[in-house]
Amino acid sequence: MFLPRKRFRAPVVAGALFVSLPGALAAQAREFTKQGLYVATFDWDAGANLKAGREAADELRDRLEKLIGGREAEVVGIADARKRIPDLTFALDTVYPVQVIETIVRQARADEFVVGRVARRGGAVTLAGELRLLRDRGTRQPIVATGPRVEAAADQFAKTVASARAQLVHQRRCANALFEGKAEQAVQAARAGVQAYGRGAFVRACLVSALRIAGAPAGDLLEESRQLLAIDSTSRQGLESAARALDVLKRRDEAAAMWVRFMATDTASVELIAQGVRGLVEGGNAKRGEALILEAVEKHPDVMDLQRLRWAVTFETRNWPAAVTAGELLLEKDTAATADSTFYLRLATAQRSAGKTLRSMELLSRAVARFPKDARLYAQYAELVRSESDSVLPRGLALFPKSAELNTLAAREARAKGRLADAAEATRRAIEADSALPQGLLSLAQAEFDLGRPDSALAAVGRALSRGEDSTLVAQFALAKGNALLRAAGQTKARGDYARALRFFELADTTRSSPQAKFLRGTAALQVASAALREAPLEKDKALSCALAREGAASVAVARSGLTAGQELAPDAAKQYLEYVGQLEPFAQRLVGGCGDAPAAPAETGTGTGASSPAPAAGATGVTGRP
Question: Is the pTM of this model over 0.70?
Answer without folding.
Answer: no
